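Q: what sequence does this backbone want?
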């Protein structure tokens, strides 16, 4: 008996989307902050806080909306990025609410600005988080393919420069010009500029990487770039110095230049760019610090945080260091620390010290590990990306996130001079929350494209007829 059959191409096996895994992890990411909220309430008043149900439902609703957005618009995205960001955002809300309950902080604000001047920050931060989730879903919905951003390489450069220059024309806040104030509203454009700069660097380096990597001379084991290829790094170096001089913003300057050096190294695989970057950053920082009073003051506070002559100005750094010491290995417990003594910056610049005191060294290691996991998933997304622009963009966004965490944590812990930047997701501030949720959305879009299975080729109408003989 003989049977004649058509042979057709077998389609690719559909890869698992891992959305159910993400949903399960989101449950833990919501439950942990809710238990932390209950813990703080019990520590402060000995009873369950009245708003625990509303907080749990609110955070769960935000996480559910974000999950539905990913399930709808980025089915194959990395399942860890959203739960990790939700966990940090939720813990940040808990700590901000905990500081809102401090009688000493309320008394200090009212003594400075009058009775009734204190306004709790936790409700506003919850509103910013809701807007951030809406922006997150909007980016996933509108950005169908991350490669579209490559078309706007030089436009993004112009937009980034405008965002970085605008604060120069507004009054300084705490010595640094990093804010744009419009009536009752204020935004920190540097938080959004880091994303736009990563888009520009990715598009530019994708085109120029061969010239930067291959056209060089070897000297003492290093590949020295040609003079004409030094142009881009000199321009970026000059921009970072100008930001440091005119805005006295050490954090944005470090982030801006460090991001470019990291992406240069990834694009060219030349260690010489790292060496040049470190040398140029050192020269620029020393040069500016020699004549810029605000930078000199930051360095002086860093070197002598407990000096009597500077204690009135540097007491926040000293209080932060003492709060880390008071926390010990296991911490004083949520709601039982004294980090509110740091003052008005306890829930923004120095919120990490609040966690350090109440969670201790063990809690801080776990906390920083969550940030490390976000960076690791971003790097893994870069490795899995199928196009060079996506690889560079993913590594740029991950690098910007990592540099910001290092700069903030290093400043609060006394490893480097304080920069005034905010810890992503946990610190109080609308600009930071919105920008970082947009950053996570772009990483999720790139990971969705990278993990999405290739479509099966359509069967050919001229498929070969094969005769199969069966006995």
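A:
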């Amino acid at each position: 008996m003989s049977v004649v059959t058509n042979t057709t191409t077998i389609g690719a096996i559909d890869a698992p989307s891992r959305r159910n895994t993400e949903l399960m992890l989101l449950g833990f990411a919501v439950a942990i902050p809710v238990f932390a909220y209950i813990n703080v309430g019990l520590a402060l008043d000995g009873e369950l806080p009245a708003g625990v149900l509303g907080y749990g439902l609110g955070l769960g609703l935000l996480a559910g909306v974000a999950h539905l957005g990913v399930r709808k618009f980025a089915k194959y995205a990395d399942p860890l990025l959203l739960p990790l960001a939700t966990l940090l955002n939720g813990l940040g809300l808990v700590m901000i609410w905990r500081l809102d309950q401090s009688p000493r902080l309320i008394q200090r604000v009212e003594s400075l600005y009058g009775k009734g001047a204190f306004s709790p920050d936790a409700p506003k931060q919850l509103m910013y988080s809701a807007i951030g989730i809406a922006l997150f879903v909007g980016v996933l919905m509108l950005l169908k393919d991350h490669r579209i951003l490559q078309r706007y390489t030089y436009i993004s450069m112009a937009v980034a420069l405008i965002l970085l220059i605008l604060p120069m024309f507004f009054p300084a806040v705490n010595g640094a010009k990093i804010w744009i104030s419009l009536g009752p509203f204020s935004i920190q454009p540097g938080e959004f500029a880091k994303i736009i700069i990563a888009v520009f660097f990715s598009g530019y380096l994708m085109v120029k990487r061969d010239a930067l990597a291959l056209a060089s001379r070897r000297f003492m084991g290093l590949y020295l770039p040609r003079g004409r290829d030094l142009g881009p790094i000199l321009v970026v170096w000059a921009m970072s110095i100008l930001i440091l001089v005119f805005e006295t913003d050490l954090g944005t300057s470090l982030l801006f230049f460090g991001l470019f050096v990291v992406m240069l190294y990834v694009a060219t695989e030349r260690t010489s760019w790292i060496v040049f970057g470190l040398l140029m950053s050192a020269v620029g920082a020393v040069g500016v610090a020699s004549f810029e009073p605000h930078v000199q003051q930051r360095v002086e506070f860093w070197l002598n945080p407990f000096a009597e002559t500077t204690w009135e100005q540097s007491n926040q750094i000293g209080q932060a260091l003492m709060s880390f010491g008071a926390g010990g290995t296991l911490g004083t417990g949520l709601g039982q620390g004294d980090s509110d003594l740091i003052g008005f910056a306890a829930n923004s610049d120095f919120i990490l010290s609040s966690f350090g005191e109440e969670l201790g060294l063990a809690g801080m290691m776990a906390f920083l590990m969550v940030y490390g996991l976000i960076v690791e998933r971003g790097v893994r997304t870069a490795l899995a990306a199928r196009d060079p622009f996506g690889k560079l963009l993913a590594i740029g966004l991950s690098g910007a996130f990592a540099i910001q965490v290092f700069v903030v944590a290093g400043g609060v812990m006394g490893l480097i001079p304080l920069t005034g930047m905010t810890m992503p997701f946990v610190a109080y501030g609308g600009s930071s929350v919105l920008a970082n949720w947009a950053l996570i959305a772009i990483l999720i879009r790139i990971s969705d494209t990278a993990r999405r299975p290739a479509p099966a080729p359509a069967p050919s109408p001229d498929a070969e007829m094969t005769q199969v003989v069966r006995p």
